[in-house]
Amino acid sequence: MNRSNTRSGSGANLPTLRHHNAALVLDLLRAAGERGISRLELAERTGLTPQAVSKITTRLRAEGMAAEAGHRASTGGKPRTVLRLVPDAGYAVGLHLDRDELTAVLVDLAGTPVAARTSPLDLGAPADEVVADAAEAADAVRGQRPVFGLGVAMPGPLDHRGGVLHRVTGFPQWDGYPLRDALAARTGLPVVVDKDTNAAALGLALREPGGSDFAYLHLGTGLGAGLVLGGALHRGARTGAGEFGHQTLQLDGPLCECGGRGCIEALCLAAVARGDVAEAVRVLGAGAANLVGLLDIDRVVLGGRIVAADEEAYVRGVRAVIEDRARREGTGRPTPVAVAGGGDRPVAEGAAQLVLAPVFGRVNEAGAPPEAVSSIAGRA
Questions:
Q1: pLDDT tier, 368 (very low <50, low <70, confident <90, very high otherwise)
Q2: Measured CA angle at 64 (ends 96, 187), to 5 deg
Q3: 105 - beta bridge partners?
Q4: Contact 260, 293 (CB under 8 A)
Q5: pTM here?
Q6: At 138, phi and psi to the nearest 5?
């Protein structure tokens, strides 16, 4: 792999990733981990011919993205050479721009975080100041390492395809701001932008390839959901799915920053502010039960800094509401509830996966726009 990308230049050079088959092979190498996988197994699992696999792995080795990991006994003939992914062949930066805090992480090809930084952020500051802070944080965690791109996660609503923000809840001045293009110009890297909840849900989904449908509910400075349906993030026709926090639970309830009244976000955060964890859990549980009833998902995963402060109370309380509804409706086994762990870190790490997923051919899971895929995979 060409590791000569400069501080002022573009991301890491990935010529082989223009080929879909190379991405399939890379994905299997990543899944195999340190144990590695043989060329014969790669051929069997991809459906490619042994000759095609040999050509692909030869190129990947020449570029430093794959290496030998020993040999494995064969059922006949000489032992099979086992190959593995080289995690430090390239990296991705993930940024979580929250309303009051900026988290930056650097993850390697295997998805392992190798650097992180958290600093205060005022999302209400002028756009150029926020972009400058974000670029500085990305540069700090990146160092001199070869980087494929920059993933950015923040509160919505926003246009994932165009990388343009809409009326971010509580910060309507961002409406129409081209964050993706602004950060790309500032950093010289391909940039993908998505909602914080979508990024975290993507990161969780990629840990369990072929896993179940689930909803990730993030309770921090706001409340939202990331939906994984049919093995891919569900964004909706206008990329606006997952505005979980703005379902109305009380028609004459308190005013929400979105402009509505009685939103689950407003009710939940008000309870948190006055220290009433039981009420916050009850409200969150009611919303989660509505979501389960609507989508019949396999599980609910909770995350965010408020959940992290009392994980047991939130998991137990939300589970109790969902179980009570399942008993009343006679729907059988209630949907399990778990916690993502790590506070807000899953959002930043998931943002990095917005960049890495297309590298491994996981475009359906990431839902990355075509122009982002092509620029990440390698530019002429």
A1: low
A2: 35
A3: 94, 116
A4: no
A5: 0.88
A6: -60, -45
